[in-house]
Amino acid sequence: MELEPELLLHAARIGDLDVLNELIKGDADLNIHDPKGYTPLIIACYNNQIDAARLLIKNGADVNAADLGGNTALMGVAFKGYADIAELLIENGADLNLQHGNGGTALMFAAMFGRNDLVRLLILQGADTSICDTRGLRAADLAAQQGNQEAVDLLTA
């Protein structure tokens, strides 16, 4: 069915579990990518749809899939500040240290955007605080640039 990918991506975006379940029953490819490389899981996570994310993961969605820029679902929720979804992704094998095209990690996003609960969570779960982006900056450097002293303290403790 030609509309299936669009329907799957839309259902993930709005958290429509009934549609997602029907598509899953029909063996929909849960790891499809839209023209920007977004998967249904990336879209569900970025739009704070934890139940949709949980359903997609349970049925085989790749938690480490990346969009065309190399951004993963974990990076998206670190940017947005969705700690509950970050925990779900981590519990299901999300790689804490993946880097996008410019070398950024989920920890860097959390530090840059003041998501200090996520900074704590990612550090507790073992995120590497020494990774540098393409400019040679670590998460602590990025937090300092943003005036996020709490994150600097967490990252340098």
Automatic annotation (TrEMBL):
Pfam families, alphabetized: Ank, Ank_2
First and last residues of every ANK repeat: 36-68, 69-101, 102-134
Keywords: ANK repeat, Repeat
Record InterPro entries: Ankyrin_rpt, Ankyrin_rpt-contain_sf
PROSITE patterns linked to this entry: ANK_REP_REGION, ANK_REPEAT
Protein's name in the database: Ankyrin repeat domain-containing protein
Species: Pedobacter boryungensis
